[in-house]
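It would be a great kindness if you could assist me with a short task in structural biology. The full record is reproduced below for your convenience:
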Amino acid sequence: MKVLAVASEAYPLVKTGGLADVVGALPRALAAHGVGTTTLLPGYPAVLKATAGRAIHSWRDLLGGGAARLLRGEIDGQPLIVLDAPSFFVREGGPYGDQTGSDWPDNWRRFAALARAAAEIGRGGVKGLSFDVLHAHDWQAALAPAYLRYAASPIKTVMTIHNIAFQGRFGAEIFDELGLPEDAWSIDGVEYYGGVGFLKAGLQAADAITTVSPTYAREILRPEFGMGLEGLIAERAGSVTGIVNGIDPAVWNPEGDAALPSRYTLKTVARRPKNKRALEREFGLEPGDGPIFTVISRLTWQKGMDVLAECVDDLVRMGGRLAMLGAGDPDLEEAFLTAAARHPGRVGVRIGYDEPLSHLLQGGADAIVIPSRFEPCGLTQLYGLAYGCVSVVARTGGLADTVIDANIAALDAQVATGIQFEGVSREALLHALQRACALYADQPSWRCLQRCGMKADFTWGRSAAAYAALYQGLVDA
């Protein structure tokens, strides 16, 4: 079985969020199930720098962006193809926007070009390459199934929704430049509320649709979660599967994590406090035995950060401390920085993202707070489980699927792994934080939560088997 995975980012070459972790880790896990995965990525400067590949295909003019070519390389020992299109991807800034954080105005053309290149490969147009399945991740790759559909290509396609809120919606004026036939401009094609919908097009055209957790697959059937696409999801419900994300133990494992001053296992978790002391120093927190809560997140409304900002003073009054790493909405950034100034030694905030620091936070903090209003899967709670950093989560999406609430029955049965709360409000979150503080004060119960979380298996094995079965089913059909 040969699969072409198409995405806008993949760890360790380029990462802005959990999408990169999934795209980077899944190929190795699939290999154990007889699936060989080749990943197609845009040729951002960081990707080109890490790729000393040879050219295998070229275009004089790819979708109006001038000369482009495909380079072969590797990513963590797995096959990689890079779309080297300098006019699209060699820019100062991030994958999706400039140095000020504003989206590139031609993102529609940049990622249509990525999808067009993927379709060219998928239909057998690149000498020496053939695949059984094309797997597109999120809106940036979503036109690939549409291009293949209108080319009548026999290759099977899978469209994975990592977050349905990000859809790639653009004006109708771009349609004529996409290189699609006229009949693609229809409600059954790429047209979406009078414009072009990249994700909508992929969901319409793909042979199978996956989301990144079973609960999220059900949630997006409802208007409050489906973001306008709930009707299409319902129409294609028989083709939708929820497969929870996994984590890569080669990257996220406290036993061998170079970012931790003190490495540990389930049996040696008593070594963990040394990391807590390092975390206190890193964030300027007063040393102490009380709980440290962490947040590693985009600072946005979706993530419930506005509600958490309202609870910071109460958290400090409870005896808790907060160490935050994240960036996002400027007003929320300012709210947390102001809270840190208001509570020196009790609240520490780092604006931005730092991969090694995120590992120290998981390995040193006592609990991670994830009050998301919706969360397709979430990875930080899975990292928390692996590192004995107890998760305090809203009961939604993948958070509901992966964290077992510490209710009386679960505590008695010694199966609880964290704390869930219903409804993202100040009252609900405060109650959850109070529960966490009470459990932390009962150290035997807290250690049980840590041990149960660390015993849970959220590596990619089970999920990779589900993807492999999905691919095989499509090919067999």
